[in-house]
Design the sequence.
């Protein structure tokens, strides 16, 4: 499964959106539940299967969603699930326990729907760069089309009802994936995270709650869904993101002013190692790509496109590597294949073919 | 002084001699003193000046030595002296204290004569690779031509008399500069050094007695000059060197067999950093060049010629860098210029011009 995707970046990683130098992607997720139907954690397999069936048929009748694919538990192996987690399409726990789950995945992955995750539906839209509004439009359009054939559990006072109280209300979670290497280097990151959290935003690592700050990538998102309109959340997220971008940009300015040589050295060494190393761990590659990404943003380095760096962030993850190699691999073997892939992709970009499949085995 | 040499490698670093993959150079030094004349440490300035004059006139009448240049104290500044120390032409203390010293430097630096170092004459020949015999021929020929116009202090029983008893006899010191990275990586180096020292050979760092083992470079030389014929010393050194080469080669074999990926990774990373770093300390550059040199020897890497790596070992030293830049520099500035020089030279070699002056300021 997903062999055709394994060497292809998701559209939201194209590096083409607004502010894409610092903001990798924007995401909007809507939680919806069917009226008079137990929430998935409380439902038995039969009920969950029924819900999957109803949602699937609503998806098939939707115009926006008809070009994608629908998967059920049996369709996906463990590696497929890991692969989708790496692509930010599903949550790590989704589809792991029991039958009766479904997944809709749109053609370019900008739209997806998890069926029977914590809620009956989790509609998700992902866009490149800082485009929370556009992501929201996409998700809302999908929501509207689906609600034509599904009746959602909606309370006049509370709004959409959800399995977890933190999602009640709009059911909306909006987030951005943001790259803050200069704030990490100048050691201002903790103070920035504090300020952002204090005004009500959640800050998480690359893969959501509880994950490490790998590659200096953070997710900013709203904490609450009750008592704030969708518009307030979206505008608030955009505003706080622009503020964090400003902090990051001034940290970059300070680095260039006070430690130009050291920062350039760090960037170019990272580039040199990516181009030539024979062994790269998952953690190291994230940090090297982060440094090169910073170099592109600061104009220090121009050799490779931003999209390739984003792409490698994804393709160098374990499940992607194993899909790429066509077999399961031990971590040690993955480290060699990861280095090979990074070399091959960069060589390809340097020789003028950045957008090809890059599955050449030589570098 | 020496501006024309500062971006040029010495002939003995060409990488063209036998076993040049492991042995950088061979050196033979003959200590000679004039009959009935106090040794330099005991001589006053007037006497030292007289000796310089006599030796200089003998050099000018020699056929072999007439193409070089002769320098006296006033000719050389501190940086010039450091430069010559880096080129292995003079000893670190030479010409530092008092007047009355001289230096003959042959055109391609394969022959040189220090006048009034510890002895009146130190005739030195340097050749590329393992060619102790050829170095000895050169030094002996110079010795013979000089002795036509100088009377050396020679005792029928003891041989040549010298200021320090360790040089009495043949006055010969023969040495090789050898690169042993695999023995260092496999941690066998100490045991090899022990074996070599036990059978009577001295082992020193790159810059002679008491210097660090920078860049995994060691000097092997004879300890004594009394009671062993020149032939015994030369053959013995060649034999022990061939033995050490074998140890190094089998350590390389073991590395490729047991840790191929790790060693290739180390080599390629070193190459990547040399190609792109913006800051390189003197110690780091030696270790990076050592790894790349190992890569060339093991056939892991073929991008640049061995001669360039040898050349960079020399050109990246502090006095060479300052000569190259045409000004004195603080260590921090040197680190940036060193990285720039390494990049420029490697780029030049990659674009097909390895032998040019490489003084381009862009990389």
Sequence:
């Amino acid at each position: 499964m997903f062999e055709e995707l394994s060497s292809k970046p998701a559209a939201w990683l194209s590096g083409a959106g607004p502010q894409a130098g610092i903001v990798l992607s924007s995401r909007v997720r809507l939680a919806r539940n069917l009226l008079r139907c137990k929430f998935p954690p409380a439902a038995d397999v039969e009920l969950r299967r029924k819900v999957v069936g109803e949602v699937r048929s609503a998806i098939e009748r939707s115009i926006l969603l008809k070009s994608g694919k629908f998967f059920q538990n049996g369709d996906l192996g463990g590696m497929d699930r890991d692969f989708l987690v790496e692509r930010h399409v599903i949550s790590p726990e989704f589809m792991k326990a029991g039958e009766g789950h479904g997944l809709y995945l749109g053609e370019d992955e900008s739209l997806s729907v998890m069926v029977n995750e914590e809620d009956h539906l989790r509609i998700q839209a992902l866009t490149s760069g800082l485009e929370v509004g556009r992501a929201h439009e996409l998700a809302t359009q999908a929501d509207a089309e689906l609600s034509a054939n599904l009746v959602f559990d909606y309370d006049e006072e509370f709004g959409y009802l959800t399995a977890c109280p933190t999602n009640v209300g709009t059911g909306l979670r909006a987030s951005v994936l943001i790259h803050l290497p200069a704030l990490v280097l100048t050691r201002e990151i903790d103070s920035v995270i504090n300020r952002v959290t204090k005004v009500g935003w959640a800050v998480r690592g690359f893969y959501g709650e509880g994950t490490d700050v790998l590659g200096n990538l953070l997710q900013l998102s709203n904490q609450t869904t009750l008592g704030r309109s969708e518009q307030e959340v979206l505008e608030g997220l955009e505003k706080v993101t622009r503020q964090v971008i400003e902090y990051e940009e001034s940290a970059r300015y300070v680095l260039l002013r006070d430690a130009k040589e050291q920062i350039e050295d760090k960037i170019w060494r990272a580039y040199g190692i990516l181009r030539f190393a024979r062994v790269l761990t998952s953690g190291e590659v994230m940090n090297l790509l982060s440094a090169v990404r910073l170099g592109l943003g600061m104009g220090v380095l121009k050799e490779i496109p931003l999209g390739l760096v984003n792409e490698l962030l994804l393709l160098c993850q374990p499940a992607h590597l194993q899909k790429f190699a066509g077999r399961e691999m031990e971590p040690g073997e993955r480290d060699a294949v990861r280095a090979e892939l990074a070399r091959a992709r960069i060589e390809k970009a340097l020789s003028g073919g950045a957008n090809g499949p890059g599955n050449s085995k030589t570098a």
